[in-house]
Amino acid sequence: MSIDDRASEQETLWRAIALAHRKPEAPATGECLCCGETMSAGRRWCDAVCRDDWERLQRARR
Ligand SMILES: [Zn+2]
């Protein structure tokens, strides 16, 4: 294994840790949590309107 491989492996690990510590109710799945639109990985909503709608929904559930 080269040093580069090890570095990217470390980066992957940090990314996994960061994801695990995110708010559990809002994982970034690559799909809009509000309308289900497919997006680039790491995003949770397709736009601010969806994000606001989703947050309102979360608050209403509690
Ligand atoms: Zn959306």
Q: Overview of this structure, please?
A:
The structure is a single chain. By secondary structure, this protein is mostly helical. The protein has one domain. The chain has 2 helices and no strands. The protein has helices spanning 3-20, 48-61. It is elongated, with a radius of gyration of 15 Å. It starts with a helix and ends with a helix. Bound molecules: zinc ion. It comes from Andreprevotia lacus DSM 23236. This is DUF2116 family Zn-ribbon domain-containing protein.
Blueprint of the fold:
Elements: H1 3-20, H2 48-61
The structure holds zinc ion.
Protein name: DUF2116 family Zn-ribbon domain-containing protein
Organism: Andreprevotia lacus DSM 23236
Descriptive keywords:
62 residues, mainly alpha, 2 helices, 0% strand, binds zinc ion
Bound molecules: zinc ion
Shape: elongated
What is the distance, rounded to the nearest whole angstrom, between the alpha carbons of the first and last residues?
49 Å
SS field, number of helical segments: 2
Please state roughly what percent of the residues sit in beta strands, choosing from under 5%, 5-15%, 15-25%, 25-35%, 35-45% or over 45%.
Answer: under 5%
What is the H/E string? HH
**SS elements, strand count:** 0
- pLDDT below 50 for ≥5 consecutive residues: which ranges? none
Rg to the nearest angstrom?
Answer: 15 Å
Summarize the biggest pleated sheet.
none
Kindly name the structural category: mainly alpha
Q: Provide mean pLDDT, rounded.
A: 83
Number of domains: 1
Helical percent range? 40-55%
